[in-house]
Amino acid sequence: MVCPAGVARKKEVFVLKRSALVVLLLSVTFLAVPTFAAPMPSKTFANQSLATRDADLALVRDVAANEQVAKVLAARGFSQEQVNQKLAQLSAQDLHQLAQNLNQLQAAGLTQQEWIWIGIGALAALILIIALS
To answer: How far lies 131's CA from each of 11, 66, 124, in Å?
Structure first.
């Protein structure tokens, strides 16, 4: 069975429009994903007091002593004593910077923001598929 030229042409135009729309959607999706790097503060002040260093050291040691963190460190071959020794060797500036940025540390895997962007992309693709069906 041979299709009339007009029907074949309409089908070809539809396929081209659909392909262009998919390429446009994918381009927008990938361009819309933000960079996941965050600015890091520079080194802290040099005349940090001993009390501040002790407070920072206690905070970092508390995090390192956390059951989950200690389990991962132990799996990597570090004892709690080794971790404490390494932390004590950090400069006051590095220790303060680590203590200030503990909330930015994350476990392996995707962040919540990354999952949100993936969800938005999946939703956009689903909407596109439904609209073109």
So the answer is: 16, 49, 10
Supply the pLDDT for residue 103.
66
Estimate to the nearest angstrom the gap between the alpha carbon of 18 and the chain centroid. 32
Per-residue pLDDT reduced to its tens digit, 44-74: 455 567 778 888 888 888 888 878 778 888 8
Residue 79 lies in a domain: yes
Are 63 and 83 spatial neighbours (Cβ–Cβ below 8 Å)? no
Q: In 10 A of CB 35, how many CB atoms?
A: 5
User: How many separate domains does the chain show?
Assistant: 1
pLDDT over 90 percentage in the chain: 0
**C-alpha triplet 43, 77, 81: angle, nearest 5°:** 65
Identity of the residue numbered 76: R
Provide the residue range defining the domain that includes 68: 50-103
Look at residue 109 and tell me if it is in a domain: no
Sign of CA dihedral 106, 109, 112, 114: positive
User: Is residue 81 included in any domain, yes or no?
Assistant: yes
The residue type found at 43 is K
